[in-house]
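Re: beginner question about structure tokens

> Can someone show what the tokenized structure looks like for a real chain? I only ever see the sequence side.

Sure, here's an example I had lying around. Input first:
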Amino acid sequence: MATTVQPASGETTKQLINYRVDAGVAVLELSDPPANTYTYEMNRQLDDANLKARMDNEVYVSVLTGAGDKFISARANITMLASVDPTFKYYLGLHVN
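And the corresponding structure tokens:
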């Protein structure tokens, strides 16, 4: 039986979202090149960055971009999807939509 992919308590995770503010624009950059495929952890970090931008009085607009030359994101990470159960996939799909 596959399990969910979540970091263990206290485990450090890779920085997958770069966040910066420039002249009122919050730039949220997916940073897992070359394809910036999304995972549970990337979506958690993206949620955090979105909330940070929404709560910042100096931010008037947010821009989502991707690191690298080809993609903002090439969809879900296939390796992650192969390692989780159908219920996790269902809820991940609801979350990213």
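Each token stands for a local structural state, so reading them left to right follows the chain. The helical segments are 40-54, 78-82, 86-96.
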